[in-house]
Design a protein that fits this description.
This protein starts with a strand and ends with a strand. It contains 2 helices and 14 strands; from the N terminus they run βααβββββββββββββ. The protein has helices at 14-30, 34-47; strands at residues 3-5, 51-53, 58-62, 67-73, 80-81, 85-87, 90-92, 97-98, 108-114, 123-132, 137-148, 151-157, 160-167, 170-171.
Length: 172
């Protein structure tokens, strides 16, 4: 994870500005390398509570109109609520593999409802699979909006999507 300093130097408290300026002067005297200076500033920012870690998790729209998804690193927790939900007469519990009455071609694992976003509290998250490369393992998820028991919405671009209704045992 890459740390980012959230607060510019001129927005620090006066006390913290004095400390940072003192450390800058000391680092110049020690003739530290640029990388060593960055390490020191990361530690300083962390101590002063000005450091936040950027999350590598990102929401994406998969290409070829494959819908909204989430991609995250293997060690990163997925922000979901462990909430069971009823879809087309089937109760989905966290960890359950399902095709959602034929909505998916193969069974996907239900992970829960996406947490932390007011407007997207009914976004169901399904684990699609993992991809391992030389450096890290990425997890891929499919996100589908739950509208009501027999109605879903899938987002295909930022401004469009499709409404699905479960009628007579078929998603239309």
């Amino acid at each position: 994870m890459q740390p980012t300093i959230l607060t510019p130097l001129n927005e620090l408290t006066k006390k913290d500005q004095v400390l940072v300026n003192k450390w800058l002067a000391e680092m110049k005297e020690l003739k530290l390398s640029y990388n060593d200076m960055l390490k020191v500033f990361s530690l300083v920012a962390q101590k002063l509570n000005y450091l936040k870690y950027k999350s590598p998790m990102e929401k994406v729209i998969y290409s070829s109109n494959m819908g909204l998804g989430i991609i995250c690193e293997d060690d990163e927790p997925l922000p979901v609520n462990n909430t069971p939900i009823n879809v087309a007469g089937e109760v989905l519990n966290v960890g359950t593999k399902t095709t959602m009455s034929g909505y998916f071609k193969k069974p996907l694992e239900y992970c829960g409802l996406l947490a932390g976003e007011e407007l997207e509290t009914n976004v169901m998250v399904f684990h699609i699979g993992d991809v391992q490369n030389l450096f890290k393992k990425l997890r891929y998820y499919q996100c589908i909006y739950w509208v009501e028991q027999n109605r879903l919405f899938e987002k295909y671009t930022e401004s469009s999507g499709r409404d699905y209704k479960f009628i007579n045992g078929i998603w239309k």
